[in-house]
Write a structure and sequence with these properties.
With about 170 residues, this protein is mainly alpha-helical. The protein has helices at about 10, 15-35, 35-65, 70-95, 105-135; strands at about 1-5, 5, 155.
Amino acid sequence: MKFLGHSAHQVLIVFPVGLLMTAVIFDLIALGTGSNQFWTVSYWLMAAGVVGGLIAAVFGLLDWAHLPGHTRASRIGVLHGLGNVVVLLLFAGSWWMRAAPGQPPASNVLALSFIGAGLLFVTGWLGGELVARLSVGVDEEANVNASNSVRDHGVIEPTTSYRDAA
């Protein structure tokens, strides 16, 4: 699904990725400083990241549903999507198991988010493979002198064709 000529999924993923990775950074800062305020920030960043991830996932699923079956893009899309479901489950579990926003979480709770962050690097690479290598979500007329992306497009339109998908 496109919004103003761009894939909505590709636009939306920056929020959960940024929020979840920043939550991990704040966990590491909290571990290093012992300051409870960093646990509070991490707690709420993680909650927002999981919600944002769920929203982005809906648009990713819509994009994947328009890919031709039995293609490399479709197979990588499955790995990317299922991997990100696991990422969201790991972060949601870490968030859910935290006692309270300002309290230090147990080491197994931190491990969930750290594993989720590591897996997010892998699934992010898979998403990059879909866009940069397989041109999923890339406009068929894309080039270094292409016209403005909102040309002749409605505000929201379905993504139905992909270059080299077959």
